[in-house]
Amino acid sequence: MCQYQSILLRVGFTCLFHITVCACTF
Q1: Residue 12: alpha-carbon gap to chain centroid
Q2: Which one-letter DSSP state was computed for residue 18?
Q3: If you ran DSSP here, which 8-state letter would residue 17 be given?
C-alpha cells in the first residue's frame, strides 16, 4: 500500500495531504 501511495506523490500529491505517505516514502 505504501508503494501505491508513493506513486501518488510522484503524480503530484503533497506530504501535507498524505502524511502517512511521507512516512512510507521516507
Answers
A1: 9
A2: -
A3: T
Asked if 5 contacts 24 with a C-beta cutoff of 8 angstroms, the reply is: yes
Range of the domain at 15: 1-26
The 3-state DSSP class for residue 8 equals helix
24: left (phi over 0), alpha (psi -120 to 50) or beta: alpha
pLDDT confidence of residue 26: 46
pTM above 0.85, yes or no: no
Q: 1-26 pLDDT, tens per residue?
A: 455 556 655 655 555 555 565 555 54
Residue 11 C-alpha cell reads as 503524480
What domain count does the chain have? 1
